[in-house]
Amino acid sequence: MKKHFLLIALVLLIVSCSSVKKHNEQISSLHSVASLQSDVDKAYNQLKKHHPNLDLYISAEELEFKFDSLKQSIKQPLTSYEFYHKLAPVVKNVRQGHLKVFAPKKRYTKKEYRERLKKKFNFTELDLDYIEDKLLVTNIRSKDSFLIGSEIIKIEDEAVPEIVTGFKKQIASDGYNTTLYDRVIGKRFASYYFSDKYSVDSLEVTFKKEDSIFNKTFKIVDKEEKKQDSIPKDSIKKDTIVAPKLSKAERKAKRLKEKELREHHRVYGYVKSRKEYTRNIEFIGKDSTVAYMKIRGFIGGKYKDFYEEVFHKIEEAKSENLIIDLRDNGGGGLAEIAELYSYLTDEPHQFIKKSEVNSRVPFLKAFMSNTTPTGLKIFLGAISPVVIAHNYLKTSKVDGKLYYKHKQSKIAEPKENNFKGNVYVLINGHSFSASSVLSNQLQANKRAVFVGEETGGAYNSTVAGVFKEYELPESKLQLQIGLMQLETPHKQEPEGYGVKPDYEILPTLTDKLENKDPELNWILETIVNQK
Fold it and tell me: Torsions phi, psi of 475, nearest 5?
């Protein structure tokens, strides 16, 4: 029996290694014209089949023309990455920020993958902002702090403006919004740069700081750097260093402290790689009259516990003003923003309307895709009757269209301890998706003053909720297609723009270099002047 298990494991290992090798060869080789044209057709058919509002910002005729033109433009074999640069700009014409094309990634065997987990690409430790057409280093999560405040002017032999121009051909915002581009490019520069590269192990980057221009090479390095002992090992006796023995009470106190820290991490959404929390609260001023809540994303952590705890603290502090910072918040869960809004209103409310969908079983469509692992497909097949029954109960047809009813579509009551003071919301072009939906509710109900820049997410609607991931058979590019049109009860004209600030304040390059926050400072000064 043991021999049989070993034989099965060996066969699975060989098949896995063979599959990895085949995938890597396929994405790095040239594909025939006919096979790429077939991938174009499949991409277009997937969009028509699953996207609930494909012609919101572009007519069906115009989009069909663009896909047909793409097919005709393919006259010679291309690699997957060359094809990506052709397909992504066409898909961008749909003008839906959640609709994305991903270039294929190199795969690794289990052994190679385990080894890569021990390493990191130190270029990704740079925090960047793209402002006034300059790519600025605003922070670095390593010892190279001298790079902060420097400008990246070139990567390898390619100037930054050329790289950014390429990014903008591939990235879509919701509708006709333009504020998203510079903000998202700065924050996700490394992700976009590596997305269309087969494999990168090092980068030579050219920096400019004041009048100095210099180069630095970034590489894949070990995550844990070996500490160099200043004292030779043989000069230390084995019995010299002895860990202090803790008493039973001390061990119990230590475990309790560690447990409390883990719970705090879960509630506030600790991001280990960045050593920061997704959600934060602090009180500004000696009398704590200003509560400042920074939310980097509506995802991860025990958000209900966070808001319950935070609004209890705000109530205890008797804060009269609340600042919610949604800048660079790319979105997240619908349930979380509905939860937060219930602490900011004192009236019953409908948070979101029913979502238009193309199928009565949107969740099953999302999960049963050609990117879903076989084992998961078998499991989903087994529970599919439950999923189908759930989806059918949630969907209904109105005027020939299908709609999915969310929990947040029902009339909800405000929290008993809802905040009744002044609310200020900070937004920018990278306030997207759920951030825009929440901002829509607050602005439409005149519940907050908005400061900053128009959001990258549209005011009226966004296509998201649940996604279908589809892999094109030949090129291995992947499509991410939103299956639900999320609409708020409030609309504005014209269609296709974000939530606009009541007071537009844009940080300058000088502000970034001097670590100033003009938007936040404006709110704090306004609060002081109102007193």
Answer: -80, -20
Question: Which of these, 166, 196, 53, 33, lies nearest to 487 by C-alpha position?
Answer: 53
Spatial CB neighbours of 273, under 8 Å, sequence gap ≥ 6: none
CA 152 to chain centre: 23
How many H helices and E strands in the chain? Answer: 16, 21
Q: Where are the beta strands (DSSP E) in 13-167?
A: 100-102, 119-121, 126-131, 134-140, 151-155, 158-159
What is the rounded end-to-end Cα distance, in angstroms, of the chain? 81
Residue written as tokens 């800048």? 327
Query: At 16, is the pLDDT very low, low, confident or very high (cuts 50, 70, 90)?
Result: low
* pLDDT tier, 18 (very low <50, low <70, confident <90, very high otherwise): low
Q: Are strands 503-504 and 449-452 parallel, antiparallel or unpaired?
A: parallel
Instruction: Return d(Cα 53, Cα 485) in angstroms, integer.
Output: 7
Spatial distance between the Cα atoms of 230 and 380, rounded to a whole number of angstroms: 57
User: Where does the pLDDT of residue 243 fall: very low under 50, low under 70, confident under 90, or very high at 90 and above?
Assistant: low
DSSP 231-289: S-GGGS-TTT--PPPPPHHHHHHHHHHHHHHHHHHHHHTEETTTTEESEEEEEESTT--
Whole-angstrom distance, CA of residue 88 vs CA of residue 58 = 16
Closest by CA position to 461, among listed 257, 177, 198: 177
Q: Is 487 helix (H, G, I), strand (E, B) or coil?
A: strand
Please tell me whether residue 112 adopts helix, strand or coil conformation. Answer: helix
Beta bridge partners of 292: 282, 323
Q: Which of the pair, 119 or 405, is modelled with greater confidence?
A: 405
Tens of pLDDT along 102-130? 999 988 999 988 988 888 899 999 999 99
- Distance (Å) of CA 332 to CA 17, 20, 127, 133, 326: 35, 32, 21, 29, 12
436 and 380 Cβ atoms separated by less than 8 Å: no
Task: Give the separation between CA 173 and CA 188, rounded to whole angstroms.
Answer: 14
Rounded CA gap, 293 and 291, in Å? 6
Taking only the tens place, the pLDDT of each residue in 448-505 is 999 999 999 999 999 999 999 999 999 999 999 999 999 989 999 999 999 999 999 9
Q: Dihedral sign for Cα 76, 77, 79, 81, please.
A: positive
Q: Are 182 and 456 in contact (CB under 8 A)?
A: no
